[in-house]
Amino acid sequence: MNQREKILAGGVVLLIVAWGGSRLWNRYQGAVDARAEALVEVKGRLDLARLEAHKAQAALGELDEFQSRSLPSERNVARSEYRAWLIEQLVAAGLTYDDVKSTPGGRTRGDAYEALTFTADAVGDLSAVTRFLYAFYHSNQLHKVTLLKLTPMEGGAKVRLGLTVEALIVPGTPRATGLAAGESDRLTLASEDAYISSVVGRNIFQEYVPPPPPRPVRPPVVRRDPPPRPAPPKFDDAKYAYVTGIVGSGDSYQAWVTVRTTGEVLRLRAGDPLKVGELSAMVERVTSNSLVLSTEDGTYTIELRKDKSLRDAVTASDETL
């Protein structure tokens, strides 16, 4: 076998080995996957079995409770004792009963329970009906009202009560006689009086009319006095006081100031005080053609024949500053 044939033979052997290894790997991987799927299935069945066991345990607990609340296992004893209990509750509530009957036969549901039916007719006011219903639902009996009919009587003070009740006998109850003891916590309000307060005083035979919506609360009206009007500005005679003349010579001059509103003529020399209207000043000096006034705010010059009042001259100087 030459070199080429050896190489070809080696290649064929490698192909055979790779093909065989691939088949073995696929078989191994398939077995692993199948095992994982089987584990998942087994786990699912186990979880389902645990769930069913939990449900069965809960059902057993409920069954124990139902058996403890059941009527006595003996049907005739159950009819007699429960009828006597209904009469006792009607009388204790203040109702006058006409009759309390136990309907022959009974409704059954396989082996789960047997339902005994009772009917009652009674007369009383709404507070008595409320007391009876409170005692009924406050009892731990395994019973329920299937029909409640109230008919108002003349005068409206009393009603006629028509009542149908079902009470259950659960197989396996340990009592052959005697009703279930204890109180139920199914009621919402805390006491019998609370229910009477919520029922008595209403006319339950009229259609309910909701109360009108509350009126919107209007905000209080706050009366505010208008702000006081500003006081009118005081009349200032200085607006109508003008330098109408200057007399004298050298360093001695006298200014004449005419107040047109009063007709007064003021003759002023240097050092004289000046008070005209709202203007208070001191004559600082008088020149041949001007009067110089000094105030707390500064010094002001009023020229002769410029047709400016003393106030205009002071105001113009302030605005210039």
From TrEMBL:
- The residue ranges flagged as biased composition, category Pro residues, are 210-219
Q: Where are the residues of the annotated region Disordered?
A: 210-235
| Record protein name field | Pilus assembly protein, PilO
Tell me what organism the protein belongs to.
Pirellulimonas nuda
Q: What is the lineage of its organism?
A: Bacteria, Pseudomonadati, Planctomycetota, Planctomycetia, Pirellulales
